[in-house]
Amino acid sequence: MEQDSVTITINQKEGSIGSTESRSIEEVTRPVVMTLNSVSSTLEKFLTPKKRSIIYGILVTLIIVSIVFSFPESQDSPRLKRLVSLFGMFVFIIMTFAASVHRQHVQWNTISTAILLQFLLALFVFRTSVGHDLFRWVSAFVETFLHNAYYGSEFVFGTTAANAGTFALNVFPALIFFASVVQMLYYLGTIQWVLSKVSVVFIYLLGISGAESVVAIASVSCCENPLLIQPLLRRLTKSEIHQIMTSGFATISGSVLYGYISMGVSGQALLTSCIMSIPCSVAISKLRYPETEISETKEKIQVHVDEETTNLLQAAGKGADIGIKISFLILANIISILAILYATNQFLTWLGNFVNINELTLQLITGYIFVPIAWLIGADNKDLVLVGRLMATKIWSNEFIAFQQLTNEYKGQLTLRSELVSTYALCGFANFGSVGMQVGVMGALAPTRLDDISQLAISALICGSLSTWLSAAVAEFFPEGHSMGQKVSVKCWACGKVDTYSVTEPTARSMPSKPKTTKTKGSDEKPVSTEYYELLGISHTATQDDIKKAYRKMAIKYHPDKNRNDPTAEDKFKKLSEAYQVLSDPKLRKRYNEVGEENGVRPDGGFGKFLYTGFGFVDIIGEISIGKDMREALETAEEEEGDPETFTAEEKAAKEVQKVEAEQARNLIRIKRVEILCQKLIEKLNLYTPNTEQQFIETVKKEAEDLKLENHGVELLHTIGYIYNMKVNQYSSKKFAFGLGGMFHSMKEKGYIFSQTVGTLRTAYDLQSTFGELQKAEENGITEEEKAKLEEAAAIKGLQAIWRGSKLEIEGVLRDVCDEVLNDDKCSKEEISKRLHALRIIGTLYQSVIADPEPAAH
């Protein structure tokens, strides 16, 4: 049966200067045209194609070097390491050129453009928020999309087998599913259209043929790529065959991507590596095997279209057929290669015992051989041997086994930098098992070219490996922002001075000195003030346990919910919270004893720390930070307004760094808060067992009855219970109706967050409006009584705004805690199921709490 092709021909036409204009215009423009032609011919004589290629290559090198070293040095990305990776990059290129089959035919413009394109892609991904977010979204989408294969596997093999986590049941269903989707997209014409459009860019930029461009852009796997140009395979040049095979070895298949992700490998790193390796594979292949023949697809794009497929369902079935064949091919390949590898290692181990070398294996031998390459791609010195062994495992076995070692056996042994470059270096099908697959598939599609394919296979394998190593070296160039412990260099725009600041802990903010009242200094035995002690009804010699018990007793007594007819209850409770916060902190208590409240003691976070939560909620939601954040913001504004002097450029730069450090510190505090709350929630959930369910329920009920006596206790319990139940429902519905249940609860959660955020903003806006009315009324002149009423209204709205903000913060923390607890990889499914049940019990009981009836008015 005849096969049709989708063909797009790119014609390049030379521009010419016509003579259709009037004689006067021709006479005016003739001298200009003659001058331009003269300059152009002179430049062409002086700048031969070889010289132009050299100048272009130097420019590309300068661009790369200048950008690489323009980023500030940090602990995770020292310039010396970048220099090593840059040196490794040039070493790989020089090695390939030295081994070139036709060095005199190398097109350096193609090489320079391909390397520059790879570099710019890395720059886009690592150093722009758009690129980073785009690849992170694509990675998440691919992972979620390919996970749908699980439901087909679960139906065929059962839940137990589908959850067994074996290589075959994790990878092969996703591969079959992906192959079906690809064939359906082929039938609809989607892939042909995308390839034809994107490949044009490669043809123009890199000067490669249409066949090479199509396969390089597709790169869906080393076995599937040739299917796109099946009718052309027998007429390809040797350079084109070499390029097509190199592209397959330098990238990984979308169909097996989910298998890697399920092992714990970063999906974003895998996708980025594949994209970066596409132009890199072109550069390396064209260095090793330059084009010396005339290609039939030069400046043309031809994508094979199968006319045998008549409908979408047939296309899906055909894809499944291709997927199952590839799955069994991979399965047979892995079994045979691993068996041969283990047999070889057994022989080497037996041989090594005669010369006192324990456990002598191919991986051990070649692992040490790969140590210099691991150094060249930027791995840390202490990890060179381990990274070398991973690279050796990938070559001799396959990337699956290497990634398994990376995520399991070597987990925690490698630094983040070494783990990153290892991920990029392993991301490709360049192994001896894939050589057999590559030769077998391409040989079956083009039997007349089997000799050429076999001859070029090992060369393409090495070039594919070099491409992934180059991608790893390029990835090392780009540090992804600053983190705690790094050094941040800030250059002054005015004087050019560079100051380095450590982002380790927040820099103490220098505050304008304020006059303080001079008083006699007190001591712990004889405090200057005893007001806080009197509020709690204790003596100044009270222990921490006495202070805690006294606060609990007084907080219940003066709780605003218990004293709704007392307008001063809120202020009393606020003062109690401040007193407890000062006296429960040994440093603040000592300072209070020495100088008193009005001479320097300011509780960290003010009443916001316990006013809205009470002591009893600390183990559930932690300490609210909104009060502290508001105080710091006010202090910053006060400092900036109170300093009459104009800040210098250095001071402005220092203040910017202080803001960054303060934000880093707040993030660390939140992370630590979530970590502690996770531990406490897990301890509480572990009290539940099916046999002690009733006892667990009674314990939670008693806890809820105590907690509802705290300030805003009932509302807080309802909020916590709602978050717990929402997270339980969301997690339990992930596998319901092909994931639609989890999607519904996720959307419901986002809607709830949006509504709460809008409510908080509305409260803040009301507060701002009230302050505006108060200010306008004062300007127009009002009585003291009217002013007092407006101030009271502003105070009430201010407390409401702080409460809404605190509630929003609490809900965000609780969501993070529940996500950590319910997605714990260390727990079995049975343990997660117990946690879900226990969390639902707590959430339901918290939401069912009812406030005590108000006391009757006398």
TrEMBL record:
PROSITE patterns per UniProt: DNAJ_1, DNAJ_2
Region entry Disordered, spans: 506-525
Stretches that traverse the bilayer: 53-71, 83-102, 108-126, 167-189, 201-223, 244-261, 328-348, 360-379, 421-445
GO cellular component terms attached to this protein's record: plasma membrane
InterPro entries: C_nuclsd_transpt, CNT_C_dom, CNT_N_dom, DnaJ_domain, DnaJ_domain_CS, DnaJ_X, Gate_dom, J_dom_sf
Statement: the UniProt record of this protein carries the keyword Transmembrane: yes
Record's bilayer topology term: Multi-pass membrane protein
Record-linked SUPFAM superfamilies: Chaperone J-domain
Gene3D superfamilies in UniProt: DnaJ domain (1.10.287.110)
Pfam families reported in the protein's UniProt record: DnaJ, DnaJ-X, Gate, Nucleos_tra2_C, Nucleos_tra2_N
Keywords carried by this UniProt record: Cell membrane, Membrane, Transmembrane, Transmembrane helix
Localization annotation: Cell membrane
Residues of the J domain: 531-596
Molecular function GO terms recorded: nucleoside transmembrane transporter activity; symporter activity
Family: Belongs to the concentrative nucleoside transporter (CNT) (TC 2.A.41) family.
Protein name as annotated: J domain-containing protein
Source species: Thamnidium elegans
